[in-house]
């Protein structure tokens, strides 16, 4: 609901730091772009607090207000209808931390060849001198508008009369300047409980091997070859807490989850020669936090495999908004100049082509030599020339008109349900979007199986389940508190399920359960879809090492709530044995203490006091000064008169002679 | 509303009381004691009357707004009566104390005349009454906003301060007149004071029609000032004496 001050290596962005006592401004409800003249130049009572609807939340209006920031005390955005297109992100996402740098290939760096997000206006990365808040359209917003209409309306071009309706926003941020300064200030305090001024951004990566390894044995594994299937978890919006990411991230990771489920049976019956690692990276929007952490761990022998074990990578990008019946395969032209890598990529492409047999779409290569779109695969390429493919629904620029914006929601993916369904019925209803993503998941699963050296005869038995896909889409984009998500979650985590979608902003690494809802959901879903139910009791599930055949080095054991059988009210909880791990992922820059790193993400988030807003009437300055003047006059007059009367009291008040026998 | 309004209203409401305190009370410890005790008596009277009102509101339906308003009016009338009763009780106490003080004092006769005690007691009542009226309003006036969101007048702060000023001075004058009336056994004075107090209260019910409440209250205050002046030993003759004294002073000095 609010913009939070987030800092980077060089400067701080989209910071809403208000003064410590709050910013007050006279409310002005913006009706059109021309109306902007009133707060910016014509209005007689600056500063103004501008309230605008989402259709007016455009770059041109915001930049005009930024240039006149002495007259603007703050901006309040009320989301209403979606504009035709709106992307507050940059045109070239993560341009400095991908693989395309000047040294790698200067023709491809900085999106010189393909601009991936041409609609991007960079609003999320602008620095404003005033706070920008968002308010939901409900009773409170109506009260604010009513107050404006009652007191602040402009009548016949003349200014409104005092008292005027004003609004005060409190959002004091502690962080300053940039990450390096902020972290230095946090580190200065030598006491046992240091005062942190800002926190590094970070979340949790979720990953699982088909054949898990001993999780304490780090480093290279002899004769092990792994195919990595990757997807991104997070996204953002201008107002970080409002991030939705339906096409940007959900379409990708839901497809990968469905593919993992599809592969489960085939890989258990006929395990392929190579291992497959399903990896879900968090924090990718902010310069690839999750994937850079995994690559860093692999390079430094802090992960169960290392880069030599990685055979190839298949990443699922944005696959939800197709403009035809083709999905595009993106590869990196620079590494493909090496013949070995090129052969492997061609092999992977062939596997993908053949996996779409019998399905309603096909995979097509991008056609000409084009760089990779922004993807986690780029971080692996930075370390090693690994063959790999990124799947996407766009051939060149994104099809996503709302990239990294609040409007990239269920409606954008055409997730529509018939109107008379209850929430539980909506959960079960298979939408068209779910059907098309199911087909993609089937193709991905088959391709992964073949890529991992699996037996060709098994391939046609690998099918993704549309019911699973539609339930996941419902849970991640409409409401996370549904019966299926409740069944797969642990009992102590059931309060992360809410009647709305989870939050997709990565946040800081040590935040509450609520903020980590997304990674818990992905972890437990992946466990449910790829793990095995066991007969262990709850206490055994907590300490399975005491049992002969179980080992927490290899597996993790999760106690989940389970479904409610039709005739009873008790849930049938059980213990799941799974290879899924959920591991904290913070940018390596903070491990290395290099807060100005150009190699890794250096994003931090400011700590802040409470954030609140209130409205009230303000009186004119003249009335206030008159009150003060009258007060001072009364004080002086009374001092003078009293002094005068008290010195002349013996003259003014003649003494009364007390009667000698005064008695009452 | 801001610091300007806070200080302005504080000066209006408490300026005269403050100057009276500095110039006439602060030097004499006995006067200070009588002032504080008077304030305390007023406070006890308010406590008892508010207890009655509180029980009445809790025993009835809180949703019925007209009933609550009527109960408030009843509570205030009861409080006015109780304040005057406590003023009388304080008079009795001071008379008894005066005899004791006269016995132990070094000078001949009582250290404080009844008139001085009357004035100090009245001022004590007035200061405490003003504090209770005004302190909450003052603390709210420090914030950035002003009254008026729900249609009330934006002059609320300044008119509250003016009313508090009037009430403080009125209590002082009533004290003087009341004690004098008790001394001379003129019981009709007590009745008049009570009636005037009730009239001032009912005028305040006319708010926010500030013209209808503040102007009559200030008129009553001026009348009471004149009455208190005459009842504490002043006279027109003294004023002309003072005027001539000043005239002769200016003549001799020029």
UniProtKB/TrEMBL annotation, chain A:
Q: List all membrane-crossing ranges.
A: 625-645
What is the recorded membrane topology of this protein? Single-pass type I membrane protein
Q: Report the subcellular localization.
A: Membrane
Might you name a Gene Ontology BP term for this protein?
A: Notch receptor processing
User: Which Gene3D superfamilies does this UniProt record tie to the protein?
Assistant: Zn peptidases
Family annotation (InterPro entries)? Ncstrn_small, Nicastrin
Q: Which domain of life is it from?
A: Eukaryota
- Please give one Pfam family short name: Nicastrin
User: Where does the signal peptide begin and end?
Assistant: 1-18
Record keywords: Glycoprotein, Membrane, Notch signaling pathway, Signal, Transmembrane, Transmembrane helix
Chief place of localization:
membrane
List cellular component terms (GO).
plasma membrane
Tell me which residues make up the Nicastrin small lobe domain: 17-175
Q: What protein family is recorded?
A: Belongs to the nicastrin family.
Name by which UniProt lists this protein: Nicastrin
UniProtKB/TrEMBL annotation, chain B:
Where would you find the membrane-spanning parts of this chain?
6-25, 32-56, 71-90, 117-135, 155-179, 186-203, 209-230
What InterPro entries is this protein classified in?
A: Aph-1 (IPR009294)
GO BP terms, alphabetized: Notch signaling pathway; protein processing
A single GO cellular-component term from the record reads: gamma-secretase complex
Name the keywords, alphabetized.
Membrane, Notch signaling pathway, Transmembrane, Transmembrane helix
- Lyase recorded as keyword: no
Superkingdom of origin organism: Eukaryota
Q: How does it sit in the membrane?
A: Multi-pass membrane protein
Q: Where in the cell is it found?
A: Membrane
Q: What is its main location?
A: membrane
Question: Keyword Membrane: yes or no?
Answer: yes
Report the family membership: Belongs to the APH-1 family.
PANTHER family listed in its UniProt record:
GAMMA-SECRETASE SUBUNIT APH-1 (PTHR12889)
Q: Say what the protein does.
A: Potential subunit of the gamma-secretase complex, an endoprotease complex that catalyzes the intramembrane cleavage of integral proteins such as Notch receptors.
The record describes its quaternary structure and partners as:
Component of the gamma-secretase complex.
Protein name per UniProt: Gamma-secretase subunit APH-1
Protein species of origin: Hucho hucho (huchen)
- Taxonomic classification: Eukaryota, Metazoa, Chordata, Craniata, Vertebrata
